Amino acid sequence: MKFDGIEITNAQFYIDLIRRCADEHWESYENQDYMDFQKDIQVDTAHFSSTTTLTVVFGKVQYGYALQACAETFKHTGEQKYADMGLTYIRRIVEIYEWVRANTKLTDHEIDSLQLIEGGFAAGPFLKGCMILHDKGVLQQDLLDRLMPAVECSIRFGLRMVEWGPFNRNLLKVTVFDRFSKLFPNSRYAEKTAKMAKFLIEDSIGRWNMEDTLFYNGIWYICTLEYFLENGIRNFRTETVFRYYAVCAAHLQLPEGSLPDYGDNRPRDFGCVALGIGFYEWCASHFNDGEIRYFASKFVSWANEYYKGAIASGWLVRSYAVAADALLQNDVQPQKPDYISGEVIEDLVGKKMVFRGSDGDYLLCNYRDEGNYALTARQNMYCTIPAPAEKVHHGHSDENAIIDYTYKGKFLLSDGGYRDQICTDGHYRADFYHNKMIVRNGRMFYEDKNFIQHIRNIGTYLKVETQKVFYYHSGNVEASRTRLDDTRHHRDVQDRTIIHFVKENMYAVIDTVKAAETYEYTLGPVWHGGKVHKTGETDFLVVQTADILQGPSGTEDLNLRVGFVRKDLPTDVQKMRRLGIDDQESVAQYFSEYLVQGEYIHFVTLLMPEQTAEDKARNSTILASASCQQVAGGKALEFNVEIDGVHYTFGMKMDETYGFTDYKHRPTYSFDAGKASYGKFTTDALFAFFAEDEKCIDYAAWMVSRVDYDGKTSFASEQTQFSNNDLSNNPGAINHARWEDHIQK
After folding, report:
1. What's CA 482's distance to the chain center, in Å?
2. Which pLDDT belongs to residue 61?
3. According to the model, what pLDDT value does residue 428 have?
């Protein structure tokens, strides 16, 4: 069935994918010489790394995904050949294990490190396949008894994994332990694994996930749900959190259908990210939510087209299986979400801002920090994981970074990749790999004009705190401001204000930095591409060259014009390794000087799509009209730009407390104390814009008590003439949250 131009998934679609996985695995494995590992088995295993990367001896005979695919297909179709295929995989594992025990002198620890059944990702599906075949009566007890000691190797491996908390690897372990204890109740490890599963899941029952990446969120989603379904767990906390994450993912979805690549992730990935599909389809069915249904189908439909049908991955069988079961119970009718700009979904946990326009215009700003939840799990992980550049967990130093900017199906900006032949000049999670403001203490040498080289470092994660200042929308303008407090390390407070000109599909990014101490600072915004071409005094054309970022036919010449509005600060273009590609290029504007405590420095960057000669001429005209300056003694900023005959004046306080005076009485603010003049406009608003054409001026202002134009008051709040014990103890002006109006010329 098609809806809104996308192919809507159903239970049979997922069953067919699972069958394809079973058939493709069998084609590879049916005639495999699965005992040829013998030539490698005599090596000293002490140097092996027990990871989930399958680089050990038995990596080539990992049957977990194949076994679950066969068992699920047998469950849904009743075709005996799939049960027989599954039993064949089980017998092979038994034969391998029994040969190793009989013919080598390896200890338990050494055998465990070989991972006959890989203990993280593959063991869960392997045990699920065994459970299905056992429940259907085709896996007999004698074979199950012979299998038990082989599976115990995976269990011992899992018991040595040192981590716990609400994140992906822990939940992989939970599903393995829980299924093992049920399938092998007579094992010497059954009681312990049952307890461990119960204890390890506790941090994930109705609680927030501690990972800031959809790549690994997918694992946590599906494993948590599998455990809940197999153990009958359901309460108001699980319902609330599950629905939150499904709706959040739906509203993060890119226009093409893929999901954003913040944190440890890659653009347009369909690996771990897609493990969330079963979770999304279950949420759609369980909550009878057509919007989640639409989102899941759009994600799968996009992937099926982008990967040319190659989405029948054994890796994803566990997710497809949950999706099929859910849709068999309740196949919800899809409903297109009301994709809007703004917060996704709130500003305490998710901490994302998304902007949307026409022609696939999409921009995502991630301002999530580590947060104040999962404290003990984070503290434990600091003691166990040897990844100093990681924001716990699987996160980057990407607070206040623009993760993705797409237009017409092409990435104009993207995040920096994940484990792509690990970078030699710093960890890929470091702040300077992201489209964000970078701050370093101290000044550059006068002879050194290479800002990007100066800011590179090993990338150790330094904890910061973030919060939303505002999100506003009025007419053709959407604007957000998010704050990064780094007073503990680099001694600064950064605000990123993003202004979206909706009809024009372009952005202005205003970065302001407040010095927290009197010292020398080197700082500036960095923007990343494949190639960077200088097009003007302080403007550049950023061309994305990575294959993964390209758009559909007709967008080959579509690129991003990056214009720095300030002409008094230097710029720098340097090569950098990103997305696993050498000689990518990045551009920055920077400041390297002395700042006094409380002093502000600002940058204004225009981001404009550019494809044709007309676009180039238009963008050049816009850039020529743009200007910015600090006013009100350096406490506020004025930004002017003319776009297609409309002159915009933006006025904003860089210090939102500017105008607060007498803290002993309420209200503490006054117009005279907090006013700033922006050309002909004077206001005490936190943020305001004035859009002027030949006939009139439309304006909007937030946190405002008065707006004057050309010496005349256009708006003024009422003056209180009395005190109120609950609200005030002093007469004064009312500060309105918002006001909009127009002025006729």
Report:
1. 16
2. 57
3. 84
Q: CA distances (Å), 740 to each of 481, 670, 680, 698, 702, in order?
A: 19, 20, 17, 8, 9
In degrees to the nearest 10, what's the CA dihedral of 653, 350, 475, 484? Answer: 20
Q: Where are the beta strands (DSSP E) in 249-387?
A: 342-343, 352-356, 362-366
Q: Is the separation of the CB atoms in 432 and 426 below 8 Å?
A: yes
Q: How many alpha carbons fall within 13 Å on the CB side of residue 442?
A: 6
The DSSP string of 648-693 is EEEEEESSTTTTB--TTSSS-B-HHHH-EEETTEEE--SEEEEEE-
Is residue 51's pLDDT more than 80?
A: no
* pLDDT of res. 418: 83
Quote the pLDDT of residue 425. 44
pLDDT at 422 over 60: no
End-to-end CA distance of the chain: 55
d(CA 446, CA 258): 45
What DSSP line would sit under 72-87, residue for residue?
HHHHHH--HHHHHHHH
- 342-609 placed in CATH 2.70.98.70: yes
Two tokens at 690?
A: 């004035």
Average pLDDT, the chain: 92
Peptide bond connecting 345 to the previous residue in cis, omega within 30 degrees of 0: yes
The pLDDT of residue 55 is 41
CA distance 24 to 573: 48
Strand partners, 575: 585
Give the rounded percent of residues in the chain with a pLDDT score beyond 70: 93
Q: How far apart are CA 233 and CA 222, in angstroms?
A: 14
Q: What is the DSSP letter of 717?
A: P
Cβ atoms within 10 Å, residue 329:
10
Domain limits, the chain: 342-609, 626-744
Is-contact 470 686, C-beta < 8 A? yes
CB 429 within 8 A of CB 418: no
Estimate to the nearest angstrom the gap between the alpha carbon of 453 and the chain centroid: 27
Distance, in Å, from the CA atom of 546 to the CA atom of 653, rounded to the nearest integer, reads: 39
- pLDDT of amino acid 34: 85
The one-letter code for the residue type at 8 is I
Q: Kindly state the average pLDDT of the residues 268-284.
A: 97
The token pair at 469 is: 């200042």
Do 522 and 443 meet the contact criterion of CB atoms below 8 Å apart? yes
Return the HEC string of 114-165. HCCCCCCCCHHHHHHHHHHHHHCCCCCHHHHHHHHHHHHHHHHHHHCCCCCC
